[in-house]
Amino acid sequence: MSFVRHLKTAALASAIALTGLQAAQAQTAAAPAKPAQQQEQFFPLQSYRVGPYAAGGTGFFGGFIDYLNLINTRDGGVGGVKLTWAEGETQYEVERGVEVYERLKNRPGIAAWNPLSVGIAYALIDRVTADKVPLITINHGRTDTTDGAVFKYIFPLLVNPYSETSGIVNYLGTKVGGLDKLKGKKIVVLYHGSPYGKETIPIYELLAQKYGFTVQQIEVPHPGNEQQSQWLTIRRAKPDFVVLRGWGVMNPVALKTAQKTGFPVDRIVGNIWSNSEEDVIPAGDAAKGYVAIGSVAPGTQYPVLQDIIKTVYDAGKGNLEDRKRIGTVYHNLGVVNGILNVEAVRIAQAKFGKRTLTGDEVRWGLENLKLDEARVAALGAKGLFHSINVSWDNHEGEGYVAFQQWDGKQWKQVSDWIAPDWKLLRPIIDKSALAYAKEKNIKVRKSIDD
To answer: Which pLDDT tens digit goes with each residue over 423-435?
Structure first.
């Protein structure tokens, strides 16, 4: 083909294309405009509804989804943005959790990951940091991730393992007339044989040195169905208190075995994952009088729970199969987790616009997550949890906890909100975080803008 003929052919093709484009534009102008598709903010859920820890998984993720449903149904989403989610079953296993992450991580509009698993959380730290999406480990996770100067995308909201431990020791001090009266006392920590269970071994040793009590730490292999030998060891040790750092089936087994070996239940104090109805109801009378720590309170009397009942469950949209579980500890923790996630999105929208946000923008919202008691009350959650004050270098908040006692039918709060010993804890957290930064060659942040 000659160059001139090529130009003529190209010109003819352009003319035809232009005519087609003009016709399409005319047709578009004549047709009624289609409504814009609603933007969505996506929450991938690494849930577990089967296996030995299903009670925790169904309660927590049920509460989380119930709150997202409430916000969509009652408020039309956040700033007009619909909240969406998808679940991937992990059975609380790390490999399955990582598989769910890899399968869902490319979905658009991911706000944050919420695995409720120490093992899965550890496996995701480097991944979420590379992908610039927040990882929320409410009440659990790696303690030094409280230091946002190093762990930019990890948020152990409400309570970390060390602040929880400090809160428990502070509470035990009130039981003996003051922290100075702990000197000479003996405490046994019965812990779950997992990274979660072992996380607090060094802090109990440190607190024992500070306050002069002796501590004996005894492991219970996963999942915790058999504890006879451990409780025989406890009976021989004759401790003043036993701290139950359990999870799942381990907890009711511990309470029933303690009763069989004659250890008084009112001298057992449960940790943050040993404080649910699913931990005490299966233990029957052996649980009556048992005390456990909590970062959220049980019950349905809070306005946000009443809204969920009316707006979500009465409309047939509830996530729990058994409505009687509404207001239980795991369900309420899921609701509070939903509040924290949604408020982070709301705060971020105020800066970046009412649209689908990136994970990094939601991270900014989490680093400005400041819910005082007035805001908590406005959200219908007064008394459900205390408050939270997150910053770029403090990814946990204030660490307030309260203690509750099982009366055979329900939990009753038996303490005021107690703060941990941050003066002791923060230098330990920062030292560990800086060591991690050096190991991983991470640049330590100097401000929220880094």
So the answer is: 999 999 999 999 9
CA dihedral for 314, 320, 323, 325, sign (positive or negative):
negative
CATH 3.40.50.2300 fits 162-294, yes or no: yes
Taking residues 279-297, what's their average pLDDT?
A: 97
Rounded to 10 deg, the angle between the 329-352 and 54-75 helix axes is 40
Q: Are 162 and 428 in contact (CB under 8 A)?
A: yes
For residue 370, the surrounding DSSP H or E stretch is strand 370-371
Q: What letter would DSSP give residue 110?
A: B
Placement of tokens 């689908």 in the chain: 356
Q: Give the number of other CB atoms < 10 A from CB of residue 187.
A: 24
pLDDT at 36: 53
Residues whose CB is less than 8 angstroms from the CB of residue 324 and which lie 6 or more positions away in sequence, other chains included:
none
Beta-carbon count within 10 A of 236 CB:
8
Please name the helix (run of DSSP H) or strand (run of DSSP E) that holds residue 424, with its range, or none: helix 422-440
**DSSP 8-class letter at 315:** T
Collapsed DSSP state (helix, strand, coil) of residue 86: strand
Handedness of CA 344, 349, 354, 356 (dihedral sign): negative
Q: What is the CATH number of domain 40-159+297-399+422-440?
A: 3.40.50.2300
* CB half-sphere exposure, 110, CA atoms < 13 A: 22
pLDDT digits (tens, 9 = 90+) for 371-402: 999 999 999 999 999 999 999 999 999 999 99
Pairing state between β 268-270 and 241-245:
parallel
Report the pLDDT value the prediction gives residue 52, as an integer from 0 to 100: 85
What residues does 85 pair with on adjacent strands? 43
Domain residue ranges in the chain:
40-159+297-399+422-440, 162-294
